[in-house]
Design goal:
Helix content is 33%, strand content 27%. With 326 residues, the protein is an alpha+beta fold. It folds into two domains: 3-146, Aminopeptidase (3-Layer(aba) Sandwich); 156-317, 3-Layer(aba) Sandwich (Aminopeptidase), CATH 3.40.630. Strand 2 (57-61) and strand 3 form a beta hairpin. The longest helix has 22 residues, at 100-121. The protein is globular, with a radius of gyration of 21 Å. The mean pLDDT is 94.
């Protein structure tokens, strides 16, 4: 197929969502990405704070108007004093249209976006992308684009049909779920103090967090916190059951999306207790499998913690990186 056979444009709004979801789900089924989407999922993603679909996305259609490729380059929030701009790259190309010409067009658009950001911000840009380690098509494109693998992440899962070990919080700590807006603010503070020493950390704002809480499957009772004697949020287990995903895929899985222990409250057993509390709640609400993601080089021993609780590695993902100097 020639270069002139493709029509390219930015995201045009609500009527694009179904075709984007269909493309994502086709790629998911073909490439076993474990990453299917509903229209509502996409609506939430594309309205997140700081993201401009008209600027940060691009769509490619064939002569018949079918969507055959999608790319986005969201910018991670950073203050004006940051030494560089960090950009993420996500893209999907229709399995029947994976030609060198189309791949070249997608990556040329990415290069142009990066060039515009460098000119606007007057500083270098660091580009990040990821791929499951079996997804050779995407790995080849990223490596051919000059990106290199710099980190590994695991998806782990735990069989919830098996007994879950008993747990108890340290004396003076109370287990409950997030109850109000004040708890949400304390949660964000705890998150930032828990992950500040982790790889590629970015502070979370209350605005971005509350947008995440707008997910249709969010339930306060799945948003667990351990409250310290002084009233601070000392640890948290943010869990979720994606009902649409389970329905589409015939599964009954739940996610421990984020597990963290605040500095000053570590080495007390809070991480294990919150993990077990989270998967217990997921099982009570119908999940038969719990899943989570973890940095293979996590500095706080998270991998060993998850293994001790019955989690086993299911998938491995590669994080890719490339720097554009100004």
């Amino acid at each position: 197929m020639s270069l002139t056979a493709y029509r390219t444009r930015a995201h045009a709004g609500e009527h694009d969502l179904q075709s984007i979801a269909d493309l994502f789900n086709l790629c998911d089924a073909t490439d076993h990405l474990d990453d299917s989407y509903s229209v509502e999922d996409l609506r939430t993603e594309l309205t997140r704070p700081g993201f401009d679909p008209a600027r940060d996305t691009q769509l490619w259609e064939d002569e018949g108007g079918q969507l055959i490729a999608y790319a986005e380059t969201p910018t991670r929030a950073a203050d004006d004093h940051a030494a560089f701009v960090e950009v993420s790259l996500y893209f999907h190309i229709h399995p029947q249209h994976r030609t060198p010409e189309l791949a070249q067009q997608v990556l040329e658009w990415v290069d142009a976006r990066i060039g515009a950001m460098r000119s606007e911000k007057h500083k270098p840009v660091e580009l990040r992308a990821g791929a499951p380690d079996h997804y050779q098509f995407q790995i080849d494109l990223l490596e051919g684009f000059g990106m290199r693998g710099v980190r590994y992440f695991f998806t782990m899962e735990c069989d919830l049909t098996q007994p879950i070990p008993a747990f108890a919080l340290p004396e003076g700590y109370a287990l409950r779920h997030v109850e109000n807006a004040e708890d949400e603010v304390r949660w964000v503070e705890a998150y930032n103090l828990s992950f500040i020493d982790h790889y590629n950390f970015h502070p979370r704002t209350i605005e971005r967090h509350r947008h995440w809480l707008s997910n249709k499957d969010y339930r306060r009772e799945h948003d667990l916190i351990a409250v310290a004697p002084d009233g601070a949020v000392a640890a948290f287990a943010f869990c979720l059951i994606d009902t649409d995903y389970n329905q589409r895929n015939g599964t009954h899985q739940g996610w421990v999306c984020i597990l963290g222990v605040r500095r000053g409250h570590r080495k007390l057993g809070l991480g294990r207790s919150m993990l077990l509390a989270g998967i217990t709640k997921l099982r009570e609400d119908g999940a038969t499998v719990a899943r989570l993601n973890v940095d293979a080089e996590n500095p706080s021993g998270a991998l060993q913690l998850y293994q001790s609780a019955g989690f086993v590695q299911d998938r491995r993902h590669i994080s890719f990186w490339k720097r554009y100097e100004y």
